Amino acid sequence: MRRAERDGGFTLIEMLVAMLLLGALGTVFMTTVLGAQKSARATSSSQDLNEEARLALNRMAREMRQAAAIVSVQNPDGASYDASAITSVTFSADFNGDGCIDGVVMSPAPTPTPVCQPYAASNPETLTYCWDPSASVRQLYLVPGTLSGSTCQTPNALPILAGQVTTFKLSYRSNQYLYDDNGDGITTWTELDQAGPPAGNDNGQLDQPELSQIDSVVVELSVSAGGQHAQSYMTQVDLRNLS
């Protein structure tokens, strides 16, 4: 007697099992691919943010390092520092090396008296770095000259970071260690102020008596891209050309 031959192909159960296995493998594969893409985007975004922040800090440090004087500040470090307030620093520097600031001989005047190049609006020697946390886009701005109002976003202000600046804090230090009241090796502007004349005027503000003795500025900056990948940076700028 001849044996009956089995029908070829898969049974319904075998097909269902195969489909389930393929679906599970596809899900694992897609999850892996999407995770790798997300990780690559996050890494690229973080690298771009690091590079941009590094360039911005290097620029700020390079310009401030040449400062002949700190003209004015808003919201410095200390007990009265407010993370929700506008923070700015205005300084002047002899960028073109003619012995003058914006066409005016520096005080005290060098000998021999220099011949000043005329002021050029396109290349000012008084600059302001300004950050306004109340703005919809928290940018760090470079403002030629001094601030003319209560906002950083003046018509001639230039944003220097594409990412949102979530914090911007400036701390002011002096090498007048005689006034280091707490003995931590750092003389802050508040210690100068509280010491009274000739170091400060004991009015709780960082103004001219203390500004004239500031030798370094510590810049603290936090930046995020699209509300994610926040990065924090800090650098100390030593002011080498103070008059």
Task: Tell me what the structure shows.
The protein has 243 residues and is an alpha+beta fold. The chain has one domain (51-238). Helices cover 27% and strands 27% of the residues. The chain is built from 3 helices and 11 strands, in the order H-E-E-E-E-E-E-E-E-E-H-H-E-E. The strands form 3 sheets. A 5-stranded antiparallel β-sheet has the order 1-2-5-6-7. The mean pLDDT is 85.
Entry summary:
This protein is of the alpha+beta class. It has one domain (51-238).
Strand content: 25-35%
Please, what is the average pLDDT?
85
Shape: elongated
Q: Counting H and I runs of at least 4 residues, what is the number of helices?
A: 3
Low-confidence stretches: none
Radius of gyration: 30 Å
Order of helices and strands: HEEEEEEEEEHHEE
Largest sheet: 5 strands, antiparallel
- Distance from N terminus to C terminus (CA atoms, Å) equals 116 Å
Spatial sequence of strands, sheet with the most strands:
1-2-5-6-7
Number of strands: 11
Number of individual domains: 1
What share of the residues lie within helices?
A: 25-40%
* Structure classification: alpha+beta
Itemize the secondary structure elements and their pairings.
Blueprint: H1 12-65, E1 67-74, E2 87-93, E3 100-101, E4 104-105, E5 126-131, E6 140-144, E7 158-159, E8 164-174, E9 187-188, H2 189-195, H3 208-211, E10 216-225, E11 228-238
Antiparallel strand pairs: 1-2, 2-5, 3-4, 5-6, 6-7, 8-9, 8-10, 10-11
